[in-house]
Amino acid sequence: MSVQQVAILLNETIGTISPYLHGEFAEHLGECIYPGIWVGEGSTIPNINGIRQDVVEALRPLEIPVLRWPGGCFADAYHWRDGIGARSQRPLRVNYHWGKAPESNHFGTHEFIEFCRLIGTEPYLVGNVGSGTPSELRDWVEYCNFAGNSSLANERRANGAPEPFGVRFWGVGNENWGCGGNMDPEYYAAEFARFRTFLFDYSDTPIHAIACGAAGNDWHWTWKFLDTLRRKHWNRMHLVQSLAAHYYCGTAGTATQFTEEQWLELLCRAYVMEGIILGHRTTMDELDPDRRIHLIVDEWGAWHPVEPGKPSSGLYQQNTMRDAHVAAITLDVFHRHCDKVYMGNIAQLINVLQSLLLVEEDRCIKTPTYYVWQLYAPHKGGSAVRFESLAERISDGGVSRDHCKSSYLQRSFNGLQCITGSASVKDRTLCVTMTNNHPSRPCEVRLTLVGAQVKEASMAVLVADDIRAHNTFEQPDRVKPSAPRPIPAAGDTLQVEAPAASVIQVLCSLG
Ligand code: AHR
User: Fold this and answer.
1) Do residues 368 and 388 both lie within one domain?
2) Both 155 and 276 in a single domain?
3) Any atom of ligand 1 within 6 Å of the Cβ of 30
4) Residue with the nearest Cα to atom 6 of ligand 1?
5) What's the confidence (pLDDT) of residue 375?
6) Distance from the Cα of residue 92 to its chain's centroid
7) Mean of the per-residue pLDDT values for the chain?
8) Do 431 and 373 sit in the same domain of this protein?
9) What are phi and psi of 186, to 5 degrees?
10) Quick one: pLDDT at residue 385?
11) Atom 5 (ligand 1) nearest CA
């Protein structure tokens, strides 16, 4: 068995891992909201005021830090007033972007906030810039956040919420270069400034405005948007708190049918996230050298062909060990670059794209991606330290997705960059997470700690008998992590057996 050397440099701190990096996204798309979250009070499926109980029970232990809603492309066609008041009176609309599906509006602002409270997450609302107005968005903020006496605040009270919702994160449109209005960056910068002006701080907690960022490696959008704000009349960059890029690593093969080569191709594309972060942050640093504006990635994940038998507009896909690796590689990239990236929101929560849960009628199962969220949780709020796999790096500088097809790069990934990971310290506990990306070769990982000694250590591993393994409603527990078990540790060295295609969590108490 090959031996991979990894050094954990505890004396080289990168920064604090923002818990928001483990965020989620839920859109009115396919089966994510209906019936993924909302079944209604009259449903035979057990529910809490219409919200699925099984989903709440599955998500609450993950302590998801932030949930983005209502879109996605849906957001720039959504009018928030459609989703308040008596449900029987709410208008029936057409969800144009996603198969012209009927939108009952039964899941609106109050239901979303209740769901967030039930699962213990912070809401992130995305406003309608593409087809909405600044006053519509201003009114939504006042409705949600004003504690005083106004018609909108009183309407919220009449609708059952005496206390303000205190929503801090507000998206100013979504993908405004595409489904959010087909704007160019200069035009969007002007629209952003106009809408942002009326995002008033109705409470003591200032609004955190999130501007629409680029698709993938479109550095031009990032540069032009910020540069336009900077140049027009006076510098308006202070209006931006975060800039949100999107990056989907896509697919290779299908969700459940792929070769070892396609496994490597997709993992390599997931790894491209490192280049995306470096590229946007470098661009932003030229205009915002103090990093006052946060970089966030509020949509990311795998995007496979829709599962046979499901409508193409619903983006329903299965989730295998390969998706677990996509999630783990991406979270590890976020942690290693936590000085550059502040929030990440995987797309999406339930039954859409790379989801944590799949539901069908009264059944709910956890995907392999769910278990990555569980294993990686100890990193949240930790202090990231350098994780150095003593092998050649492949993606610093921004490898493009197309390069992942090159057999040279796949060989590099396969042989040299077999182990990727991240490390952080919190309360004298070191958490190391790693992936053995090789589809069929196990290895031994020798972890050397620099700057600390280990007292005791344990590991848990997510691995299956097949790289295509996934959970189904018939076999819900085929893929799940092992229980933690002690591992040999002496002085500054730890030995970890890394099965092929595995995701590993190591926890060590430090001496
Ligand atoms: O997550 C699905 C869609 O992908 C979102 O609605 C859109 O923002 C992106 O293109």
Assistant:
1) no
2) yes
3) no
4) 72
5) 98
6) 30
7) 94
8) no
9) -65, -45
10) 98
11) 72
